Amino acid sequence: MACEEYCFETRLLHNKHKMDAATGAVSVPIQHASTFHQFDIDQFGKFDYARSLNPTREALEDVISELEGGVKGFAFSSGMAAISTAFLLLSAGDHVVITEDVYGGTYRMITQVLTRFGIEHTFIDMTDLDQVKHAIKPNTKAFYVETPSNPLLKVTDIQAVSQLAKEVNALTFVDNTILTPALQKPLELGADVVLHSATKFLSGHSDVVAGLAVVKDEGLAGRLAFLQNSFGAVLGVQDAWLVLRGLKTLHVRLDQSQKSAFTIAQFLQSQPLVEKVYYPGFENHPQYDILQSQANGAGAVLSFELADEAAVRSFVSNVKIPVFAVSLGAVESILSYPAKMSHAAMPQAEREKRGIKNSLLRLSVGLENSDDLMKDFSQALEQINQKRLVFERGE
Ligand SMILES: *Cc1c(COP(=O)(O)O)cnc(C)c1O
Predict the structure, then answer these.
(1) Cross-strand partners of 76
(2) Ligand 1 site: residues with CB under 6 angstroms?
(3) Which pTM was predicted?
(4) Which stretch of 11-25, 187-201, 378-392 has the lowest confidence by average pLDDT?
(5) How many angstroms separate the CA atoms of 342 and 212, rounded?
(6) pLDDT, tens digit, for every residue of 276-307?
(7) Pfam families this protein is in (predicted)?
(8) pLDDT at residue 318, rounded to an integer
(9) What is the largest CA-CA distance in the chain?
(10) Check whether domain 8-247 has CATH 3.40.1110.10, yes or no
């Protein structure tokens, strides 16, 4: 595909912060100063106090803004800090239409914190545009989309939801953590605010917690800058540097992990002990066409169901290569148990309503050899089989 000026992978490296203007350093300098001397009592410089702005964080904010096609980026101390600060764009009495299988932390924020401040919400299946329309109220001020969603990998039509939002003068927020701007650009599809847990694919090495936001409208940029400074949940400079370093390899990491994810998803699909595989790269995925039209790939996260919780317990205790952990988007494959990890903040009844069963596992595919991973999964599945046989024979 033709790119305007430079393609994405080139822009990861050749951007405004490719080198330090003062020294030619090819890595962004880490500026630890919390405050900056002012040379003129009437005219302060660009930097005055590091919560408001500092050069290292600014470099990351510039880079993510360019990659997402926005006008301004913002770096926060975590994905949840980015999401929570973006929610502060709302006021008491406002209403949010939100995707039902949203990240557990976002669920907690909207149900247990924002409600105390008089911000209402309606959870819906965002893949159904009729439900989206019916959820709109006179006070709807925001639509909150996560696509593909976590952990069921449902795909929402960003353009269609943004269009509905515009018709009622509401903002569209998109959590782009799972696909990243390497594969999906929500601002180009009509969204107003893109949010990230940069803890995941953007940094990619399980060594930093960070969040980002990007907007494409100058007015909104001003409001979010004010909130970032007021709330103060900014990203530290060491962490900003780690995200900048991780970003340089985003394209190759995601490309490789995505290839393996497709192979592994197919492999799991062919296993009799795997009841169901959720992967938006499958042609029979219910929203395959929407994904194809709005993203350049299906990403490296998939989920699968085993027979029951006992099978999950056996699989998890026998699998050797992936780490069994919270999180996703790292160089190492991460196997998670949504019911007890990412979605533990959601009561079981709410989880089950959303199809997040106790027999569901999520896999974020890393950079290991995919044959090694499949061999490992085979042996772990085999052990479930053996347990079953022992059980059936009544031993
Ligand atoms: C991890 C995650 C978050 C929260 O980010 P933190 O960096 O952990 O605060 C939000 N959304 C999605 C989709 C995530 O995976």
Answers:
(1) 211, 234
(2) 78-80, 103, 105, 146, 150, 175, 177-178, 197, 199-200, 209, 211, 328
(3) 0.96
(4) 378-392
(5) 19
(6) 999 999 999 999 999 999 999 999 999 999 99
(7) Cys_Met_Meta_PP
(8) 97
(9) 86
(10) no
